[in-house]
Amino acid sequence: MANSDIAVIGLAVMGQNLILNMNDNGFVVTAFNRTVAKVDDFMAHEAKGTKIVGAKSIEEMMASLKLPRRVMLLVKAGKAVDDFIEALLPFTSAGDIIIDGGNSLFSDSIRRTKYLESKGLLFIGTGVSGGEEGARHGPSIMPGGSGAAWPHVKPILQAISAKAGAGDEPCCQWVGGDGAGHYVKMVHNGIEYGDMQLICEAYHLMGTALGMGCDEMSAVFSEWNTGELDSYLIEITASILRFKDADGEPLVEKISDTAGQKGTGKWTGIEALEQGMPVTLIGEAVFSRCLSALKAQRLSAAEVLSGPQGATLEDDRATFVEAIRQALLASKIVSYAQGFMLLQEAARANGWRLNYGEISLMWRGGCIIRSAFLGKIKEAYDADPDLQNLLLAPYFVEAVKRCQTGWRRVVAEGARLGIPTPAFSTALAFYDGFRTARLPANLLQAQRDYFGAHTFERLGAPGVWEHANWTGVTGRVAASTYSA
C-alpha cells in the first residue's frame, strides 16, 4: 500500500539526516540507496524505531509512494543525477515530481526541467545548505524548477527547513523557474567562499602583524560575534581557534595551509564573467584557494623572493584589531553587494522573478552564511524592491562610511608588512571603482580603437560609435563594419 509522503535516494550524511528530519516532522519517508546494504544498515541503526521505510529497489520505492510521487535525489552532482532520473522514468506517471537536492550546476537544472516537463513530469532543483547539522535540525532550502510542483512539496520542505525572523518564517521559499534554485545556491556558496577568505585574512593579520595567539584571537572573534558580525562562520572560527590537540596546543596551527574546493565558488566566478558582473571578491577567494594549493612552489619562493620579513605593528593592539573588524564588515558588505548584483543580472538574463528580500531571509537560518547581517539586507529590499545595489541602501552607506578609516589602514598595513590581503584589497578596490564617477576606461577604449579599430563613444553621445584615424594612415574602416 502506498503510504510514503516522499522518497529520498542517497544515504550519505545529508541524505540520512534529511530523512530523519522529515520523520521528526511527521512525514513518512522511503529510503533507498544504490548499495542496498546501506539501506539495511540505516534501517537497523539510525532509522530503528521510526516510521521510515527501507526500499530494496527503485520499483519497490516508487510503489511505496502516494500520488503524485515525490522523489528527492541526494547524490553526487552530474552524471549520477541523470542516471537516476532515467532509472526512475519507467515507474513514473504524469505529475510525479523529481527533486535534485545536490550541488548541481544551474544549467543542468534548466536542462532537466525542460526534459522532464516534456515527459509530463515535474522537476525541482533545490539548493540545500547547512551541512550535517542543518540537514538534521533545519537547513536553508532554495527550490526552483517546475512551478506546478511547489504546492506538492511546500509542506514538506518548509516544515524541515530552519526558521528565522520575528515570525519564525521558514528558510525555504519558491525561488523561481528552471535553474533558479541552484543558481541562488551557487551564489550562496560563492559568498561563503568570500566570507571564509575574509575571516582567514583577519586571522592572518592578527597572528602575523600583532603576534596574537590562538586563545587571544578566539576571544576577539567571540566578541565580534556579539555585534554586527554575528554569524555562524565567526562563531565557529572562535571555537576552532580555542580547540586544543591532545598535547594541549591549538589544533588549527597543525593543519596544512592548502585549501580544497568542490566547484561552486569556481562556478560563481565563471558565471560572473559570463554575465559581465565584477564579482571580484568571490573570484579572489577562489584564486586564494588555488594559490594555497601551490605549496611546493610557495616554499621555494619563500627562500628567494624578497619582501618585508618579520615586521610587526608597534601601535596599540586594540586599535588595529578594531581596524580589522571594520575592514571585515566593509568587505563583507561589498561581497554581498556583488553577489546580489550577479543574481539581479541572472534574473534579467533568464527571465526569473527573484525576490531578493526572501532570498536573504532564506539565508538567515540553517545555512553556512547565516548571520544577523542578512536581516539588514532583507530590510533594504523590503524598503526598496528595485534597489540597484546594496551599497546604495542607507544602512550600508552609513556602515561603510564608519568602517572606511580602519578598512583603508588594514589594506595599507598589509601591503607595507608584506601580509597578503587579497579579499580585503579587492573589496576596497571595487568600492573605490564603484564610487568613482569617471574611470580611466576612456583611454582603454582609445587603445582598442587604435590597434583594432573597435570604435568608441564620445562623451554626451551615447550609442554613437566612431573610429578615429589615430596615425593618419589607418583608414576609415572600423572593426564593427565587417566580420572576420
Describe this entry's structure for a reader:
The protein is α/β, with parallel strands linked by helices and 484 residues long. Helix content is 53%, strand content 9%. It has helices at 13-24, 36-44, 58-63, 79-88, 106-117, 131-137, 150-160, 180-209, 214-224, 232-242, 264-275, 280-292, 295-304, 317-350, 356-362, 373-383, 394-417, 422-434, 441-452, and strands spanning 6-9, 29-32, 53-54, 70-73, 97-100, 122-129, 140-145, 163-164, 169-170, 176-177, 456-457, 465-466. It has an 8-stranded mixed beta sheet, sandwiched between helices. It has a two-stranded antiparallel sheet with strand order 8-9. Strand 1 (6-9), helix 1 and strand 2 (29-32) form a beta-alpha-beta unit. It is globular, with a radius of gyration of 26 Å. The mean pLDDT is 94.
